[in-house]
Design a protein that fits this description.
The protein has helices at 2-16, 28-38, 57-71, 76-87, 102-136, 142-153. The protein is mostly helical. Helix 2 (28-38) crosses helix 3 (57-71). Mean pLDDT is 81; it is low at 19-23.
Length: 161
């Protein structure tokens, strides 16, 4: 019971010292615009996370750079173009469809089709191999069939010969 009371008191104390996160920019409009721009951009370190949500140092630097470009009066498209020119189309979550990004757009589908084709070929080869083995099995002779039947009826197992 004492442990529970101590834990409850600790929780109350920590919530009393909690503060709201302060925005990184002095201007709230700049911060909102930076978040809107960086949500469509990929963190180059994390690669599966947006620039807005990443905690990597490079992401922090890029967000700082975006804030500077916003303060310099650049448009959203100019900022995105600047980052694409510097880091390539990979920095975008939705890269444009052009000859240099065909692999990004169609690569997964090509790999899926190749894997499906390989699976079909494997299954056909396996079925042919097992089908041929079944044809090669000779039927039991009358003596072998009689012996198998007697073994199945007799639970004691095979008799010593």
């Amino acid at each position: 019971m004492r442990l529970f009371a101590l834990f409850a008191a600790l929780l109350l104390c920590t919530s009393a010292f909690a503060k709201d996160a302060a925005p990184m920019a002095q201007d709230e409009a700049t911060e909102q615009r930076m978040i809107a721009i960086s949500q469509d951009l990929r963190c180059l370190v994390c690669q599966n996370e947006s620039l807005a949500g990443s905690r990597a140092e490079l992401a922090e630097d890029l967000r700082r750079e975006i804030r500077g470009l916003i303060r310099a009066g650049k448009s959203d498209q100019e900022i995105t173009d600047y980052l694409v020119n510097r880091y390539g189309d990979f920095v975008r979550y939705k890269p444009p469809l052009k000859s240099t990004t065909w692999l990004l757009w169609f690569g997964p589908f090509v790999l899926l089709a190749a894997a499906f084709g390989a699976l079909i070929a494997f299954l056909r080869r396996r079925n042919r191999a097992f089908g041929n083995q079944a044809d090669m099995v000779e039927p039991l002779s009358a003596e072998e069939q009689r012996r198998a039947d007697s073994l199945l009826r007799n639970n004691d197992g095979p008799s010593p010969s």
